[in-house]
Write a structure and sequence with these properties.
It is a single-pass type I membrane protein. The structure is a single chain. The protein is built from three helices and eight strands. By secondary structure, the chain is of the alpha+beta class. Strand 4 and strand 5 form a beta hairpin. It is elongated.
Length: about 200
């Protein structure tokens, strides 16, 4: 019983999303990166403090430079996209200040959710006519399933990295052995060559 209670407590402590706030200096940009698996829904909500005459744009891209979401001159809003493959995704906020104006810093807050965090369980519960406890159990079930999938994915990545390390170690070992054999052969050839040379010069018998 205590074991299940501990598991449920851990799942309840897992946050629905991540929230971050920072100060964006004039005519600069701030980018946030995160690695995500394939086919993962992502939603974001942001808000920017006001600064007369200044504008802020945002753009969401993957590691290949493909634009997944983009807007100019924003103050607050939302964006959403689905990941197409396992990749590193980047969210950038860019500040623009007119040349004849002295810029000021702006506060930017961003809340991002992905995977099971993006589901609206209130709407789902009403549609399925679920009780509050049933809705919460459904959320915990989806969350635990997502955690299991994440662990399985990390295990697969660990196996791939281990195989790569083992392959690299084998190649380094073979290369080291080959290098030693080459050096040993070169040293033997030098000794024999010098021996013949000294004999030819009658310096040794």
């Amino acid at each position: 019983m205590n074991r299940w209670f501990s598991l449920i407590s851990i799942l309840l402590c897992v946050s629905y999303g991540s929230c971050i706030m920072w100060t964006l200096q004039p005519n600069t940009q701030k980018c946030l990166r995160e690695e995500l698996q394939q086919n993962v829904p992502v939603i974001g909500e942001f808000e920017v403090s006001e600064a007369p005459g200044q504008t802020i744009d945002y753009v969401v891209t993957d590691s290949k430079g493909h634009i997944l979401a983009k807007r100019q001159d924003v103050s607050k809003g939302k964006f959403s996209f689905n990941t197409e493959s396992y990749d590193t995704y980047e969210i950038c906020f860019v500040s623009h200040v007119p040349p004849n104006q002295r810029g000021i810093s702006q506060e930017v807050s961003l809340i991002t959710k992905h995977g099971v965090e993006t589901k609206n369980y209130d709407t789902y519960g009403e549609a399925a006519q679920l009780k509050p406890i049933e809705k919460e159990l459904k959320r915990l079930e989806d969350l635990s399933s997502a955690i299991v999938q994440d662990f399985a994915f990390m295990r697969k990545r660990e196996e791939e990295m281990r195989d790569t390390n083992e392959s690299t170690n084998s190649r380094v070992l073979y290369f080291s052995i080959l290098s030693m054999l080459c050096l040993l052969g070169l040293a033997t050839w030098q000794v024999l060559y010098l021996r013949r040379y000294f004999k030819a010069k009658k310096l040794i018998e």
